[in-house]
Design goal:
Layout (H helix, E strand, L loop, with lengths): L13 E5 L3 H11 L4 E5 L8 H4 L17 E6 L4 H13 L3 E4 L12 E5 L2 E5 L6 H14 L4 H18 L3 H13 L1 H7 L3 H12 L8 E6 L10 H9 L2 E4 L5 H4 L7 E4 L2 E2 L2 E2 L3 H13 L3 E6 L9 H10 L3 E5 L4 H9 L11 E6 L19 E6 L5 H10 L7 E6 L7 E6 L3 H7 L6 E5 L11 E2 H6 L1
Parallel strand pairs: 1-2, 1-3, 3-4, 7-12, 7-13, 8-9, 8-12, 14-15, 17-19
Antiparallel strand pairs: 5-6, 10-11, 15-18, 16-17, 16-18
Helix pairs in contact: 5-6, 5-8, 6-7, 7-8, 14-15
The structure holds S-adenosylmethionine (SAM).
S-adenosylmethionine binds next to helix 13 and strand 18.
């Protein structure tokens, strides 16, 4: 470690920016977000953007020693080296730390890549050797930190003394803070309910207040872990218990805490490993124990995922529950295949439809879905491909309508095959569809990117 990251208190102090170029504007913008008083000197004239950065007047002269009194930091971004030397000397003489923009060798400090969450500030430094790498690291860390972190830190600051008095034992106090930062107060702050978060922190202070469980119904997307939302990733990392389906990939589960308990409730076609009512009971039981439960579902929980039933059961049991959407298979597979679901020239509508209705419920009205300018994205349709094609053709859909099948979409073993509606069944069987598959029917299916195997040609060869 050849640099040391220290945090400099800025309350009641000023920070000076000298210069009027792009770099000076960037530094002024940075300082304007802090509690320091920004004093900006642009001897060549105030830049146009200045009014959008600060409502304070920009001085069009060089600063003097007096201007640096009480300054914690000075950023010097002048093209004139000689002028800069004088400013640096005055700033140092007044006790300010100096950063000469883009000149690390002349600076008292470098500016790390910063993540700003209000009270919580994270800095990433490489000692000036790889600033772009620092920015990349920042992007990754940033993704893991919720915006509510600052709110939480502010609340903690507000009640710190009260907690110290109420919980004199240091270990018990640590436990309290862990629960406050990982538990319900954090959830409430994340949901934007700041006063709720404060109330919950105070409730936890009452000795013996049992932690309240929560269930997150989370969409894990079609398989590629990079398609998880930032929110999904965050709750997954926080979960005590993960209840997951067959279609949730290992790569997604790898993002969970290593000590989180995993409960597999996967269902294969025709083999209902864990009945739905039992899944709901597991969620309720775990939440009642005070656990933070993530119910991880392939794709989106509310698209052919029975998320609605689970949410109803949780609400009926009085359990706090939240839903985090995921990239549904139709969207993930269409994107992976380069197949636009709507297109001004080919499809004015898209329908997500299941090929396998609930036993005993009426068949999908295929006739209503048979118009030419319409894309159908069929879930769970591979086993029913022949019947679906027959119904659509009977209802008037052209047998030569393009179709595309995406198997294991977004996963490393993804396959894309294209053909015509009349041969849909053959297409799914010849390609021995293994793994989940989406059927796309409509003129847009012909636009699937060129990597798709053209089925009719394949048969002819
Ligand atoms: C029970 S549904 C769940 C759908 C899920 N909730 C969603 O929003 O994607 C399962 C069906 O989704 C489709 N599916 C899910 N993941 C897929 C993938 N990676 N590639 C292709 N199809 C997929 C298949 O049609 C599979 O039979």
């Amino acid at each position: 470690m050849n640099v040391f990251l220290a945090s400099i208190p800025l309350d009641g102090r000023s920070a000076i920016v000298v210069g009027g170029g792009e770099m000076a504007v960037a530094k002024a913008r940075l300082i304007a977000k802090t509690s320091a008083l920004l004093k900006w000197f642009a001897p060549g004239g105030a830049p146009e953007e200045a009014a959008r950065v600060t409502d304070r007047k920009v001085e069009t002269r060089l600063p003097t020693r007096a201007d640096f009194e009480g300054a914690a930091l000075a950023f010097v971004a002048l093209s004139d080296d000689e002028g800069a030397q004088g400013v640096i000397a005055e700033a140092r003489a007044a006790g300010a730390l100096v950063n000469v923009v883009d000149r690390p060798e002349l600076s008292d400090f470098h500016t790390p890549a910063l993540i700003d969450r209000g009270e919580v500030v994270v800095g990433i430094a490489t000692g000036g050797s790889a600033p772009i790498l620092a920015r990349d690291v920042r992007a990754r860390v940033e993704a893991a930190l919720p915006d509510s972190l600052g709110v939480l830190a502010k609340l903690a600051g507000d009640i710190r003394e009260t907690v110290k008095q109420a919980v004199p034992n240091a270990l018990a106090r640590r436990r309290f803070w862990e629960r406050a930062f990982r538990g319900r107060p954090k959830d409430l702050a994340t949901a934007g309910d700041v006063s709720g978060a404060r109330r919950e922190m105070l409730r936890l202070l009452n000795a013996g207040a049992a932690p309240q469980g929560v269930v997150w119904l989370v969409g894990a997307g079609p398989g590629d872990p990079e398609l998880l939302t930032l929110k999904a990733l965050r709750v997954l990392r926080d979960a005590d218990v993960i209840v997951h389906d067959r279609l949730v990939s290992e790569a997604v589960l790898d993002h969970a805490r290593r000590d989180a308990r995993r409960i597999y409730v996967g269902k294969a076609k025709g083999d209902h490993a864990v009945p739905q009512d039992q899944i709901e009971s597991i969620l309720i039981e775990e939440a009642l124990k005070g656990q933070r439960v993530v119910r991880l579902k392939g794709g989106d929980p509310f698209v052919f995922g029975r998320g609605g039933e689970e949410l109803e059961a949780l609400q009926a049991a009085g359990i706090e529950a939240h839903v985090i959407p995921g990239v549904t298979a139709a969207l993930g597979c269409a994107a992976a295949a380069g197949l636009p679901l709507t297109h001004r020239d080919h499809a004015q509508a898209v329908t997500f439809v299941t090929g396998q209705a609930k036993p005993g419920s009426p068949e999908v009205d295929w006739a209503a879905l048979s118009s030419a300018e319409h894309t159908l994205a069929v879930y769970m349709g591979a086993g029913q491909a022949g019947r679906i094609a027959d119904r659509l053709i009977e209802a008037g859909r052209d047998p030569l309508t393009p179709v595309t099948v995406v198997v294991n979409g977004t996963l490393p073993e993804e396959r894309v095959v294209s053909g015509r509606l009349f041969e849909l069944e053959l297409l799914t069987t010849v390609h021995a569809v293994e793994g989940p598959s989406m059927l796309f029917i409509g003129r847009t299916a012909a636009l699937a990117a060129s990597q798709a195997v053209e089925f009719s040609e394949g048969v002819a060869a």
